[in-house]
Design brief:
Number of helices of chain C: 19
Oligomer: heterotrimer
Structural class of chain A: mainly alpha
Helix content of chain A: over 70%
Distance between the termini of chain A: 31 Å
Shape of chain A: flat
Radius of gyration of chain A: 26 Å
Largest sheet of chain A: none
Number of helices of chain A: 14
Strand content of chain C: 5-15%
Largest sheet of chain C: 7 strands, mixed
Order of helices and strands of chain A: HHHHHHHHHHHHHH
Number of strands of chain A: 0
Distance between the termini of chain C: 75 Å
Strand content of chain A: under 5%
Largest interface: A-B, 116 and 111 residues
Chains: A mainly alpha (316), B mainly alpha (294), C alpha/beta (419)
Structural class of chain C: alpha/beta
Radius of gyration of chain C: 24 Å
Shape of chain C: globular
Amino acid sequence: MAGTIQLNETPGGLRPPVAKGGTGRLYDLMEAWLPKIVIAPTFVACVVFIYGYILWTAVLSLTPSRLLPLYEFVGIEQYQALFGNDRWWLALKNLLVFGILFVVVCLIVGLLLAVLLDQRIRAEGFIRSIYLYPMALSFIVTGTAWKWILNPGLGLEKLVHDLGWQSFSFDWLVNPERSIYTVVIAGVWQSSGFVMALFLAGLRGIDDSIIKAARVDGASLPRIYWRIILPSLRPVFFSCFMILAHIAIKSFDLVIALTGGGPGFSSDVPATFMYTYAFTRNQIGLGAASAMMMLMIVVAVVVPMVWSETRRTSRG
Amino acid sequence: MAEERMLMPGESRLSIGRILVYGALALVCLYYLMPLYVMITTSLKSLDEIRAGNLLALPQAVTFEPWAKAWQSACTGVQCGGMKGFFWNSVSFVVPAVLISTTIGAFNGYVLTMWRFRGSDTLFLLLMLGCFIPFQVVLLPMARTLGLLGLASSTAGLVLVHVVYGLCFTTLFFRNYYVSIPEELAKAARIDGAGFVRIFLRIILPLSGPIIVVSIIWQFTQIWNDFLFGVVFSAGEKQPITVALNNLVNTSTGVKEYNVNMAAAIIAALPTLFVYVVAGKYFVRGLTAGSVKG
Amino acid sequence: MKTGYMRVRTVVAALGLVFAASAAQAAEVEVLHWWTSGGEAKSVAELKKMLEAKGHTWKDFAVAGGAGENAMTVLKSRVVSGNPPVAAQIKGPSIQEWGAEGVLANIDATAKAEGWDKLLPPVVSNIMKYKGNYVAAPVNVHRVNWMWANPEVFKKAGVSVPKTWDEFAKAAEAIQKAGFIPVAHGGQPWQDFTVFESIVLGIGGPGFYKKSLVDLDQASLNSATMVKAFDTLAVVKKYIDKDSPNRDWNLATAMVINGKAAMQFMGDWAKGEFTAAGKVPGKDFICAPAPGTDKGYTFNVDSFVMFKQSKADVAKGQADLAAAIMSPAFQEVFNLNKGSIPVRLGMKMDKFDDCAKKSSDDFVATNKSGGLVPSIAHGMAVPSATAGAMQDVVTEFFNGTGMSSKQAAEKLAAAAKTK
């Protein structure tokens, strides 16, 4: 800390970047180390609270832990049990279906809304607030509202029937084959507004003169969007993907509140699976094994993505 | 910013295209408003009306009793004082957690873009992966760590947890923002002899307003709405408002008062709703500034 | 100046003495529970009052959700962090699992002084003990194998309330023809499992129930009786409406209250919904044992488990808490609020309603006849891992993935081997 203050008080002015002499060397040394010192707490936190805990989870997945951690080695027994568990495979399949649909639909809806809102809309602020507010609400209760809306006997289907269209059917919530799609509907509702905001910001950031030039050259509006605007939004796509993928893999509240994993356990996802086994059913070892599998999926999907993006945007 | 943007002069008047655009936006508004409609109408009905009737119908006799009860007399445990006592609990850890994680995130982003060193890209990658760790996984080891640090069931412990797992995102935000600031600015300042801290305070920080807004809004929403960490790591009587809401809503064998539940949910969400509605403009503006030439 | 200073010093010293004295007896007693709704919260508040009357302070630690699922997660974290509460609401075989971790306190002294062995049926007291020592205090008894019926609907359909599962099928058919939903059901795994255990008890009797769902005897699980139980479950499924998945149990109860549906199979907490809606037992609604189960009683006993404490004053508070829980005054007021009955035998029941009186009579009778069995669906019979795996089979069968009853019985037997 003292070093920091001293640095602040070092007279600036015309001092050459590489100075010779005692104080100068100390100064340079400090300057060289300061960035690392600043980032060190984050580094330590990252090592302990993320990778340390992952290691701990990996260790637990090789033990017969039940109610509380127990450090006894049983090899890959828990993984064998996991792979022999139908419910786990169903949870994985659901994550695949939900994850892809959720990310893709959110991106499409978010982008479309952003493009529409960017057309000099009168009540933009008002409409934008409507699209954004779902992020502000906790799913503990919005889940109940969605449950009612999607329930055929209480919500939409009943409403349409009451309006006179008797053959209308919308029973995804109570259909084991379809229940995971209702999770997509509510998930998109919650997150697409945020994606819209990101894209809207991206659109606003594009230099107008390029577009004007293209229009003067006679390019049509859709063509301008497709050829000029969308490609320039690449970093926004990346940020959106990161945030959406993170929400998809961690989805827990959403599923619990909306379907409770049901009907039966047809809309189980890995996060609810892990929680159920590790905490409710006192099978911490099995829960840890499922957590490790989740992390491996993350690594397989996200690392290539982040790596290429870091490479592309970092200088040097 | 972009006033004339996608339209050629003369196109801005009412046309079929414009009507379609407005129509589409309005239609989507319905989808977004539906759950809020259900929550508000339900919160204004009596329990008998909810039991008897159509859940999507407008209330026949509007009552504000559920709101009063949710605010001051609903039970969330042995105390039956409603939600009003829990606001301060949440504020007391959300504010420090948001400020600390944003500050550290800003410095991290600054280092990772302007003061890159060997391995800084790898560190960034490792941090990004950290965004994805399922929170259920960290509960037990975190409990152990906090116990060892003497921070179990304390507000400080809860702040620590939120700061640690918020860092990934704040760092991502600031790093992606600073990457678009021309490096020449910093270089020039360095040649002028300015050091690490001075460059940050004099050059980078004044440019950071928009992304600070984004980071604060994101962190505030995340931490305010968090339930899992709040329930596990909070001190007994200092439970956050989400835990109180959960206690109110998730009764196992008691009578479920949906009207009170919905009112309580809206009350608990007021600060975040306020942030989004009021700061929404700055939010988009902040994000915009961040993506310039990104 | 000087005298003033002296006076302040004396007062401070006196205050210090007072605090020291009270600290020696009074303790801060932190209790983890998931009773947060109106009636339940009021009941716990009674316990708080009693404890405060003995000079302790109550530190409330309420975490609701999913029959204690959230509370258990919190509890684990607290124990792992080396900071367990004084008492926590835990029930059934989980008490044994916690006991095996070596973190529970022995409260035999209180139990002996209060004579718990005589006041509790052995089936219950055994659950409260780990290796022969009391570690938990029981609060109440919920009967699970109830059927809640709307007499008006039965009258309109021209049938009487079924006493066996064969009668049930006939009655349900008639009710459906009359335009009502025969069974109000909430399609959540624990509710599916609740119906299933009542069917097993009704078809196989208490002996079979005990052998198959408590002792997990492979032959019984794979027997023709179990296949028949699954067949019956399929019949019940035929008579519920298609919108049932993930419906809360109380919305299902509301269907019976409103006369949309004829009956619901649910524990006696459903009574609270009826009385909250102003309905009178015996007149507006009927509480009867589920078909074929009047000689059986599936119980769900809530209890507070005591955790080891290092401080002597806290241990004293813990003992006082245990004594208060089993005291007649608390047992009465708590259960009047909660809809359950006292677990303490020989209590006066005159303040309770008819359903509770019947529950109490049957509790005593089945305790003698051997028909008193733990509910598997409510975590009283087998460890949570096993119960969970078995529940998965039942709910998968119930939600119709094309499994035959025979296959279901085989899968149930396989799931019962889960440890």
